[in-house]
Prior knowledge:
The chain is α/β, with parallel strands linked by helices. The protein has helices at residues 20-33, 44-50, 83-95, 107-119, 144-165, 180-189, 203-215, 234-241, 266-284, 304-309, 316-326, and strands spanning 7-12, 37-41, 53-56, 100-105, 124-128, 167-173, 193-195, 221-226, 249-254, 290-295, 298-303.
Amino acid sequence: MSADIKRIAVLTSGGDAPGMNAAVRAVVRTASSLDLHVYGIRRGYEGMIDGDIFRLERRDVGNIIHRGGTILKTARSERFKSKAGRKAAYESLLAHDIDAVVAIGGNGTFTGATKFEKEYDIPFIGIPGTIDNDLYGTDFTIGFDTSVNTAIEAMDRIRDTADSHNRLFFVEVMGRNSGFIALNTAIGSGAESVLIPEVEMPVERLVELLRKSAKRNKLFSMVVVAEGNKTGGASEIAAKVKGQLDMFDIKVAIIGHLQRGGAPSSADRVLASRLGHSAVLALVEGKKNLMVGIENYKISFTPFEQAISMAKPINEDLLRMAETLAI
Length: 327
């Protein structure tokens, strides 16, 4: 164990994701088992700047593994982007004798940690907490599985209405820059097509696919659209195809922030626990500037700069399979 690490702080930053509380719990209980003191930072980097830092004991994280959101609260911090803001954050950590930080979040969280560590000698380990599953260096991020399950449950309900009324539904899910949620939701719900940011599908091609579906006497169809799809969101796509598919009554459903909330799935609880546990062990072993992830079901570590700068490719096999199964 590193003799330099005696006090660890943990924060959640950026968008909330189901399973963040399970990760916080794992960090606190793993650190406590190693006789380390643990401190929580409220509201991410904003709280670090303001000195909103408090002691966390084992009992403080009891009965939270099943809860959505984050007990530490979260925020996006414009102040932390400035040198003055990071200096204030550093002074807050010094005031509480913090030796290392576990940061739970996504791209913006790790970008902030990278800048901070270049200026101040406090090691960070990052835990990927984002429903988008778009961070390089990990097969899954905390919250992704729950988000997809939530979207599929909504799609199942929409299917009942679509079937009853001979409707074509365009269903928009989250994914500003990535299509991981949309693709997995489409496969899991049996949708006719999926539109994602990584692969541009001309509207003409979509219309052709839906016409073929109608010719097979299919009385309804569902199309999953990632919010960041290059040819437009669900409402825009629906407007573009309206009039070309008069056999359908076209409707739009936007799932939106429902995907962020709710109790985490068992997969997210286990993933978050593994990553939180490994993050603490990494710090006491002297590791820093790394994101802890999971690849091929094994714990892995990726430098922050790679995690945030390298694109995580969409699974081409899943794309082909989704198209095949929709026929």
